[in-house]
Design brief:
By secondary structure, the protein is mainly alpha-helical. The chain contains 17 helices and 10 strands. It starts with 5 loop residues before the first strand and ends in a 40-residue tail after the last strand. This is C2H2-type domain-containing protein.
Length: 466
């Protein structure tokens, strides 16, 4: 810093004459640019959905300038007196625009409602933080960078906005003003931008379920049967991935979503133990739950998980045990005393009575051998890439919970099995329509220790052999 760039005010303090490197201005511009980009992406996605379904546009307002139920007070009450800088005023205006767009996109709103703000010591979700900013017109001190990063991550979500790449939207909506060459990006980043096919399957299922299930009205069995395949896909994904989640919030949320889907299936006659249809992608995943991995390795096929457990954790490998064998009948006994009792029980002149008891070893195999594996059998899913898919599934929690509570508020007689094997039982609901409250849906399924897992049919049970 040169001396000519410094000036002194009346109090003797140094002032900068405005010639800076521009790093801080660039950072502020990036934050504003990304915040505006998310608003443009949501608007473009909304317009694309309206164009794809013209018959359903009568009930959806096209204008997004005035949301039907904005979370913020009238803008007039939050104008310049509350803003310290123009940048802050522009940021709050962008936040309000984002919230207005989310009111017309159930999937995106659910994703924002499930996302956490990393680096910000607050239990609130990203959606709750944005609503607080829009309401108070104030940005929490020290949280601007964490919030901007969370918004940028949602803006670059392939699951939410991947369809825009094939749209006719202007290039300014699809790309930043600063374009980076793909050759300059790390290989890991480029790989992350290519989602696994299971992401598209679950995203499609979540979107169809959100649009098909009526909010605030009783769910008809005919609607459930029409989206049966999508319900089963989300159920298999949620129930198989839940045990691998380190976060208690995600683990409990996925478990409850699978339970709600199970109850809806029971009431509509859907059996969850059926194999997936042919030529369809099975959404069941197989996480490694050994302490060394703790769910960090997730495999697409069960044989891939078994191979990983054998190679890495030495699970299910052949083991040797010392035994005592009677040379007369070639029978093996676990201890010498048991072998001697066998010899004494035999007649003295018999073959076993005269035979020697010798110590030897045998090899036990606790699992059947694996067939030859291909690269597809060993395929893994990056746990980081599943974050977007998990957020989409968690976005169904409120919708499914309301449907289950509404369905169980009606009188029910007797009990019904969750599936054909009787794994889990549905507890009968209130016998009177005047019941004060619907039963908690999470109590409908028995503890897993008392009933076999619904996905047990997918994984072969090891058969010990000698």
């Amino acid at each position: 810093m040169s001396a000519e760039n410094l000036e002194y005010d009346d109090e003797g303090e140094q002032e900068w004459d405005g010639e800076e490197d521009g790093e801080y201005d660039d950072d502020e511009d990036d934050i504003e640019e990304h915040a505006a980009e998310i608003a443009r992406r949501i608007e473009a996605q909304l317009m694309a959905d309206i164009a794809a379904n013209p018959e359903g546009t009568t009930s959806v307002p096209v204008s997004v300038q005035s949301p039907p139920a904005p979370p913020a007070p009238p803008i007039a009450t939050l104008e310049p007196l509350h803003f310290s800088t123009k940048e802050e005023a522009a940021t709050v205006a962008t936040v309000r625009t984002i919230l207005a767009m989310l009111e017309h996109d159930t999937v995106a709103k659910g994703a924002f409602g499930a996302a956490q703000v990393a680096g910000y010591e607050c239990p609130e979700t990203l959606l709750e933080v944005l609503k607080k900013i829009a309401t108070t017109a104030l940005i929490p001190k020290g949280a601007a960078l964490a919030i901007s990063r969370a918004v940028i991550e949602m803006a670059t979500s392939e699951t939410l906005f991947g369809g825009l790449r094939q749209s006719d939207a202007p290039s300014l909506i699809l790309k930043r003003k600063r374009e980076y060459s793909a050759d300059d990006e790390p290989a890991s980043k480029r790989a992350h931008l290519t989602p696994h096919p299971i992401h598209a399957t679950i995203a499609t299922a979540v979107r169809i379920i959100s649009y098909s299930i009526p909010a605030g009205r009783k769910l008809e069995p005919s609607i459930v049967l029409s989206i049966k395949t999508h319900l089963l896909a989300v159920f298999r994904f949620a129930s198989s991935v839940a045990p691998s989640q380190v976060s208690q919030h995600s683990r409990d949320g996925l478990t409850e979503v699978s339970g709600f889907l199970q109850v809806i299936g029971v009431l509509s006659g859907i059996q969850f133990d059926q194999p997936p249809p042919e030529n369809s992608l099975d959404a069941t995943l197989f996480p490694c739950l050994v302490d060394a991995c703790k769910g960090g390795r997730i495999f697409v096929r069960h044989n891939g998980l078994r191979d990983h457990e054998r190679r890495v954790h030495k699970k299910g490998a052949a083991t040797t045990h010392a035994v005592f064998k009677c040379e007369g009948c070639e029978k093996a006994f676990p201890t010498r005393d048991v072998a001697l009792q066998h010899k004494e029980a035999a007649e003295g002149e018999s073959k076993c009575g005269k035979a020697q008891i010798v110590e030897t070893t045998i090899t036990l195999i606790t699992e059947p051998p694996l067939p030859p594996l291909t690269e597809a059998d060993r395929e893994e899913v990056d746990i980081g890439a599943l974050g977007e898919t998990i957020m989409l599934v968690l976005g169904l929690h409120t919708l499914l919970q309301g449907q289950v509570a509404r369905a169980l508020s009606a009188p029910m007689n007797g009990t019904a099995a969750v599936n054909g094997t009787g794994a889990g039982r549905l507890v009968s609901g209130p016998t009177s329509a005047s019941a004060s409250a619907a039963p908690d849906p999470t109590t409908l399924i028995k503890n897993e220790d008392e009933a076999p897992s619904l996905t047990s049919g997918v994984q072969p049970t090891p058969v010990p052999t000698v």
